[in-house]
Amino acid sequence: MKKIVLVQLAAALLCCKNVAAQPYAKDPKVEKRIAGMVKKMTLKEKVGMLHGNSKFFVSGVERLGIPQWSMSDGPHGVRAEMNLHEWTYAGWTTDSATYFPTGTALAATWNPELAYRRGEMLGEEARARQKDVLLGPGINIIRSPLGGRNFEYMSEDPYLNARIAVGYIRGLQSRDVAASVKHYAVNNQETWRESVSVEVSDRALYEIYLPAFKAAVTEGGALTVMSAYNKLRGDWCAESKFLVRDILKGEWGFDGVYLTDWGAAHSTVKAALAGMDVEMGTYSSKYDEWYFADPLVEAVKKGEIPESLVDEKVANVLRVMIRTNVLDPKKRFGKASINTPEHQQGAYADAVEAAVLLKNDNGVLPLNVAELKSIAVIGDNAVRKHSLGGLSSEIKALYEVTPLEGLRKKLGGQLQITFAQGYEKTSFFVEGANNGQGAGQLSEAGKKAQDSLLYAAVEAARKSDAAVIFCGLNHDYDTESADKRDMQLPYGQVALIQEVCRVNPKTVVVVIAGSPVDLVAPSIGAPAILWGWYNGMEAGNAFADLITGEKTPSGKMPFTLAYSLEQYPAHAFNNFPGRNGTVRYDDDIFVGYRWFDTKKQPTLYPFGHGLSYTTFLYSGLTTDKKAYGAGDTVTVTFRLQNAGSRAGAEVAQLYVSDVEASVARPAKELKGFKKVHLQPAESRQVAIKVPVADLAFYDERKRAFAVEAGEFTLHIASSATDVRESVTITVN
Ligand code: BGC
Predict the structure, then answer these.
(1) Best substitution site from 73, 81, 102, 225 to test ligand 1's pocket, by max atoms within 8 Å of Cβ?
(2) Per-residue pLDDT tens over the stretch 501-530
């Protein structure tokens, strides 16, 4: 029996520990330089540095050697150049870029080093395009399968989210490009995104929705943070004192720039006091009239806010500029390169590691091409390019290899490839229409397969030795500004998959999507399913190498694939997307697998699931001690063996259960993981460290994290439901 004793972790101690880990320590010399510059500025000049002067630029002060500050979207590539004063492209011929796999794909690699390398490459490309700030990564929690921006975000789990985000941010900023972590906070739906108010408990905020932001700031050293459009408890996120002054700048010690999302400012005095620094994207080209322009000057003159508050904001901007060498003309835009073979190779590496093998009956994958004479390649997604979709994250890719092109390039000389479209994309995208509720997406009636396309595909599959169907969604569904209407595969794809599988037992289904879709029927029909994401410009080459076994899948799902939409907690409580302008997060801390696990609900493919072409054995789980104090770190070790005849990588996952607690806790929570590459028959001793502080829950009464003394069980697992070994420790 567990003794309930609260081992409260001093908030100050936690906070200092993290701040010390921050890559940018406050430098007295820099602070002096900043103060000197601010002193020389007029109020008008200062305020000029606190709002946009066009879509993506903020004014500097030329006479003091402060250049204008330049920003660009977005999370998975540097966006093409926009016109200064309009939401249209400038039509440059020199602004194509490397298109990397999107957020959920990066998270599916479970590889923070890869995320770091991604950040570096993005930074080099941003530099080449003369950008000081890159508007990413997007790190909101995937709460509902319907969330339009799920594909840009990462995971339903805060720990995985944080690890990938920290890698990305550190890599990016190592190239002197400031990250802009977005969207702070609780942007978990696009429906009514500019007005909806989120009602969520402190505990869910601290345990689920904020940890990745905290890690981004305190460990990643993120230099800028972007507000969300929505409200939290009635306050716009751009002007929420609770979120900004109290938590971001107070508890986490953030001394960079808090900027609004484009058009997310709603006030002058309230926002200024709450901690907003820079206003961007307000819907008027009369820039002087923006909230943080002339009205801010007026507010100071009227004594509504002290000028020192303006100075503080200007200092934040200058601090970020200095940390990224913006004020040093010799160093600014250094380390620049774009569209290099290395970056393309990086996009390929990400794509390979992102793909998740969901199912592989009878060893259908990898296809043994030596035995095949023909393959049918089926589906609109076999030929569709996705780089120019999703809205603000769209990329003008230098090129994009489609799946069909990748397979033709690899196998074209060797065997016959027949392409059949299978279904037609009959949806379309309309920005912001219908309050973000899936305008342009298909209603039930519009989802029927087009018979002639279906028959042609079935015929191609019947006549071929194997079939590969590239199905899924596109950016009419996975997009900023609209949620999905449901989680069904549109355009009659379920019937297509069923019919093709019926005539060809060697059928592989590749799902192209960035958010959960219903795979129940495809999972009954298809022997092999690979989840392929929006996998960047090298997607086609990566799929060809994975399908033929030149590469082995090693991705793991960053979210749960359940049997139905209603099973997901946000929907089980019937509170998505909310009502009367408010969305209540009654699911509280039970998001994703925390819910399915605790409620003992079976799922189709659990969080953390992903097969390989080889198999892995776990053994000998131990901890370095049996009992720990609140300030200790638990070192968990075990042996991992590649028991097959192919090289491969396994993501070993460490989950923790609080055996008995005074509050409701999830059945288990992810607290560590390691991706381990092993040659055939190779085995390795693996260690994962978990600070006891990470076993805490957020105690709302004490407004602090607390670990309760007693027993905790640590599980080493291959997915959230595939636990291989467990061991129990005691916290004293
Ligand atoms: C999006 C941001 C994006 C900004 C600038 C907004 O609509 O929400 O993510 O960075 O536009 O394009």
Answers:
(1) 73
(2) 999 999 999 999 999 999 999 999 999 999
Tell the residue number behind the tokens 């990086």, with chain if given: 346
Work out the pLDDT band at 214, boundaries 50, 70, 90. Answer: very high
Per-residue model confidence (pLDDT) at position 333: 85
Region 697-714 average pLDDT: 96
Give CA–CA dist 377/496, Å, rounded: 13
Q: Is 73 in the pocket of ligand 1 (CB under 6 A)?
A: yes
Residue 702, CB-side half-sphere exposure with 13 Å CA sphere: 14
Q: Which domains does the chain have, with CATH numbers?
A: 341-356+369-570 (3.40.50.1700), 616-731 (2.60.40.10)
Contact partners, residue 625, CB within 8 Å, separation at least 6: 632, 634, 729
Distance CA 465, CA 571 (A): 42
Mean pLDDT over the full length of the chain? 95
Pairwise CA distance, residues 656 & 639, whole Å: 19
- Please give the Cα distance from 554 to 513 (Å, whole number): 18
Instruction: Report pLDDT digits (tens) over 459-468.
Output: 999 999 999 9
Best residue among 189, 190, 392 to mutate for probing ligand 1's pocket (most ligand atoms within 8 Å of CB) is: 392
Show the tokens assigned to 523: 């999972």
- When pLDDT is cut at 50, 70 and 90, the band that residue 12 belongs to is very low
Query: Sorting pLDDT into bands at 50, 70 and 90, what band is 13?
Result: very low
Average pLDDT over residues 662-681: 98
Amino acid in position 117: R
Tell me whether residue 658 is one of the annotated catalytic residues. Answer: no
Strand segments (E) across 21-137: 57-58, 69-73, 133-135
pLDDT band at 432 (very low <50, low <70, confident <90, very high): confident
Centroid of ligand 1 to alpha carbon of 696 (angstroms)? 34
| pLDDT band at residue 430 using 50, 70 and 90 as cut-offs | confident
Which atom of ligand 1 has the smallest separation from the CA of 182? 9
Nearest protein CA to atom 11 of ligand 1, as residue: 262
Q: How far is residue 473's CA from residue 329's CA, in Å, rounded to a whole number?
A: 45
CA of 351 to the centre of ligand 1 (A): 25
DSSP 242: I
Residue 633 DSSP code: E
Instruction: Considering the candidates 176, 261, 478, 518, report the single residue annotated as catalytic.
Output: 261
C-alpha 262 to ligand 1 mean position (Å): 6
- CA distance to 48, 234, 271, 315, per residue, from 291 (Å): 12, 20, 9, 19
